[in-house]
Structure prediction request, 291 residues.
Amino acid sequence: MRIFTERLLHLIHCPQVGNAAIRNLLKHDPSLLNLYSFSSSKLQQLLQLSHSSARKFFHDFQRIDINKILEKYHASGISVITFRDREYPEMLKEIYDPPLVLFFMGDNLLLKRPSIAVVGARAADAYAKKAIGLLLEPLLESGFVIVSGLAKGTDTFAHQQAIRLGGKTIAVLGGGFFHLYPPENRELAEKMKKDHLIVSEYPPIWRPQKWHFPQRNRIISGLAKGTVIVQARSRSGSLITADFALEEGREVFAVPGPIGSPLSEGANRLIQQGAKLVTSGYDILEELYIE
Prediction:
């Protein structure tokens, strides 16, 4: 593994420094050649850390044996792409705050294929399952990969239906691979590791945190030409994904739901606000000018 990648991963494994801090450091040391020779005060300055954060950072930075960790990842079949690698998805480079690294298991070639994101309520019901089946078949026949978040409900239906219909699917996680969430989807994740793809910007040894999930939604929408919302409450993480898609200039689609159902409120409101109403995958293909 190249020196730059190892050093970038060393920083990534320190929770006190986020993407913005690392990018600031890269402005001054683009290849990270001086990472281990900077004085503590200089590194704190470049990373723009407070005194308390700097103390925690240096404790972790000195304690972490990045080579040992990477050996563990390799033994588990986990690979890494950095934002400078040619394998890094071009569409993801276009979003605000693209991830500096992607950890992945499975077929990374799927990152190069056109994708559609399908997200929605964790409490999704039989209506959502039926709708997803109607949406996916034409999309998969046209070569699209289905991207979702491996959450309960809609995400699970989307991955399962894509697999059942003989297509390909990508799961973007809100935590590390060694702490898969939700645990009910471990069997599904194992299947996807072999024939599909799971990705995360979070180190495999990290446990998922609440704030990880809204952040990972930018990757779900960022990998896709468009995002489909299937059932969502008025306040829903799915709507965050839709917002990211709109900010990135991507298409937003919504499946209409029964009036009066709480699970319909979010999708129906998106339609009122201009999202394209879809009742089949052909509606999506038509909007994307796919023949």
Notes: The mean pLDDT is 93. The first strand starts at residue 79 and ends at 82.
